[in-house]
Design a protein that fits this description.
Order of helices and strands: HHHHHHHHHHHHHHHHHHHH
Low-confidence stretches: 1-7, 133-138
Radius of gyration: 37 Å
Helix content: over 70%
Number of strands: 0
Strand content: under 5%
Distance between the termini: 38 Å
Largest sheet: none
Number of helices: 20
Length: 418
């Protein structure tokens, strides 16, 4: 009854302690029964104590057998209908996956449940007060989420995540989005740092490629210009003129060339939204990028970085939300609670994303869960389940012992009265 489970999973201290308490109580009832049996005729009240101890032994043994039979053969005897979880591991996996599919991952169910959820509000409260994540429930939930994420087949899970990212990018018409973003930036004056950056970049390019300009002028100049050195003078004048032009553009916000550049950006923003030829070119470039191996490696890195960040956040939310990044997230959490329009937008996006994910990937998630559990060996799944619920099952043994004893006293009382 005190044997360590057949699992490589470490037994939590709380489970070990409760197992000792339940077994100790059963042993105590057995000792009390033997003691009262020896002094049965000393006093009529001893009969009640003996009846309590005798029935408590029966109740405790019955519940010990029932609890043990869930995870292994009691006393290693191959009794029929014992070691239920190891023998039915695959069936449990299929049943659990089907339960998830029917009750959580159908679009209709997801839409109905998401309609009642305030995702933005919950995220805002959590981000604004991350200290709540350090509570017992938060720590347990974090460890459970981290363990579950690590237990999944990372190759298949990563493939699903990367496939979802690529599919979403393929479905997005990026040209109008870029056009709208650029138009909004120009309207609010946020394009000016972009122009300044382009001018600074042009100045650096000019400085780094002066030798190329001199070489081009020299190669295109006639023999007379080379003989007289006018090619060098002309190259210097070109470089000085370009450098002076870039300096004036950087210092004068009203420079005519800056105005021309702004006109070009405005025209580009409009063309991205309304010119089919440019939109087709952007779409073709996007599809070419998605097929590019470098971009695929970037998506791989994005998934691994995201997964590592999720694990860090789940295992140590306080540390993950520390520093400047944590302060930024806390301010964003306050904004989420105060800005109802932003919250409604996020909630609507969360609902649509969840329903779309359930429709597109529900079957894949179900297969992933089922195959992952089926891939665990019997010892692993037995150990994890017993560690998760074993402490409560030991309370069942304790309650069975005490309730059995009370029933024994009741039966003895009725027998004495009759």
């Amino acid at each position: 009854m005190l044997r360590t489970p057949l699992s490589s999973e470490p037994v939590p201290a709380g489970l070990r302690r409760m197992r000792l308490v339940a077994t100790g109580l059963l042993v105590a009832m057995a000792a009390l029964f033997l003691l009262t049996r020896a002094f049965d005729h000393a006093h009529p009240a001893i009969g009640y104590v003996r009846a309590f101890a005798e029935a408590a032994m029966v109740g405790g043994l019955a519940d010990w057998f029932a609890v043990t039979a869930l995870f292994r053969h009691p006393l290693r005897l191959p009794i029929p209908h014992t070691a239920i979880i190891p023998r039915n591991k695959d069936r449990i996996a299929s049943t659990l996956a089907q339960f998830l599919r029917d009750n959580f991952l159908t679009p209709k169910v997801v839409a109905r449940r998401m309609q009642r959820l305030d995702v933005a509000g919950a995220a805002g409260r959590w981000l604004a007060n991350p200290v709540h994540a350090d509570g017992r429930i938060g720590r347990s939930a974090g460890r459970l989420a981290a363990d579950f994420l690590e237990s999944l087949d990372q190759e298949r899970l990563g493939g699903m995540a990367k496939g979802a990212i690529a599919a979403r990018l393929r479905a997005i018409d990026v040209a109008p989005l870029f056009g709208q973003a650029l138009g909004a930036a120009i309207a609010n004056g946020r394009h000016l740092p972009l122009l300044d950056g382009m001018i600074r970049w042009a100045a650096k390019v000019l400085d780094a490629n002066e030798h190329m300009i001199r070489e081009m002028v020299h190669n295109r100049a006639g023999g007379l210009m080379r003989w007289t050195g006018l090619d060098e003078t002309l190259a210097n004048k070109i470089i000085e003129g370009l450098d002076r032009l870039l300096g004036e553009m950087a210092e004068d916000p009203g420079h005519p060339l800056r105005a021309k550049a702004e006109e070009g950006l405005e025209r580009l923003a409009d063309d991205l939204q309304h010119k089919p030829e440019l939109r087709d070119k952007v779409e073709a470039f996007k599809l070419e990028m998605l097929e590019n191996q470098a971009f695929q490696r970037w998506i791989d890195g994005l998934w691994e970085t995201s997964r590592a960040a999720l694990l860090r956040l789940a295992r140590d939310p306080g540390r993950a939300l520390g520093g400047r990044m944590g302060e930024t997230l806390r301010q964003f959490g306050v904004t989420l609670q105060q800005d109802r329009k932003l919250a409604e937008t996020i909630n609507r996006f969360a609902r649509r994303s969840a329903v779309g994910a359930a429709a597109d990937y529900g079957d894949g998630i179900v297969r992933l869960v089922s195959d992952t559990i089926k891939g665990w060996d019997a010892r692993t799944i037995t150990g994890r389940l017993e560690n998760a619920v074993g402490r409560d099952l030991q309370y069942i043994r304790i309650n069975g012992t005490l309730v059995g004893g009370l029933v024994g006293v009741l039966i003895h009382t009725i027998d004495a009265l009759l």
